[in-house]
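Hi F.,

I've been meaning to write this up properly since the lab meeting, where we talked about keeping a consistent format for the predictions we share between groups. The idea is simple: the sequence comes first, exactly as it goes in, then the structure tokens exactly as they come out, then a line or two of notes. No screenshots and no reformatting. I'm using this chain as the first example so we have something concrete to point to.
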Amino acid sequence: MEKIELEVRGMTCDHCVTSIRNAVQELPGVESAQVDLEGGSAEVEGQNLDRAAIIAAIEEEGYEASVRS
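Output, unedited:
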């Protein structure tokens, strides 16, 4: 199991959280996605995760994202 932690900017409400979670969970290999509104973060778990695809899915929803180092 692989885990990626991301910083997500632009979230303001629970709808934002749901939109991001749903977009990321549709990607291949993703088994779970947890989004934290207050912390401005997301945690994605799965197999053979594509960081660029995860970031692109979040950005397509209208938010900014980057992998936390």
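Notes:
Residues 1 and 54 are 16 Å apart (CA to CA).
The two ends are 18 Å apart (CA to CA).

If this format works for you, I'll send the rest the same way.

G.
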